[in-house]
């Protein structure tokens, strides 16, 4: 398995894990409150802050656990193309989330919903990019 595919699997696990924990905490707090009254800012910041070290640690652990030779980390043109195309296509999720947040702000929607729309967009972007990489490595470019 190429290093980029391992990286994509790590991002899938970390993204689902971090966003899932965030969502569980927020839904737990909303038990007796309307969503707009749930304190979310600190939890969201901690989630975003935890994402980076979790991804780094995941990459390190997976690299050590599956290390065979230095050849595992060499990238060829196919790796670069897969990375580029998956990242470019994932930017659409951030753009859609940004547009949604913009329209929500224009409609004077509560900050809770705007912030959560953007956080969801970032999470979906990460997940979509990783999924596109995995599909490209497993099934080739024909599935794009």
Topology:
Layout: H1 3-29, H2 41-65, H3 77-106, H4 111-139
Helix pairs in contact: 1-2, 1-4, 3-4
Features:
mainly alpha; 144 residues
Walk me through what this model shows:
This protein has 144 residues and is mainly α. The protein has one domain. It has 4 helices and no strands. It has helices spanning 3-29, 41-65, 77-106, 111-139. Helix 1 packs antiparallel against helix 2, helix 1 (3-29) packs antiparallel against helix 4 (111-139) and helix 3 (77-106) runs antiparallel to helix 4. The longest helix is centred in the middle third of the chain and has 30 residues, at 77-106. It starts with a helix and ends in a 5-residue tail after the last helix. The model has no long low-confidence stretch (mean pLDDT 88).
Question: What would a concise description of this structure say?
Answer:
This protein is mostly helical and 144 residues long. It has helices at residues 3-29, 41-65, 77-106, 111-139.
Extract low-pLDDT stretches: none
Fraction in helix: over 70%
Number of helices: 4
| Estimated share of beta-strand residues | under 5%
Number of domains: 1
Helix and strand content put the structural class at mainly alpha
Pattern of helices and strands: HHHH
β-strand number: 0
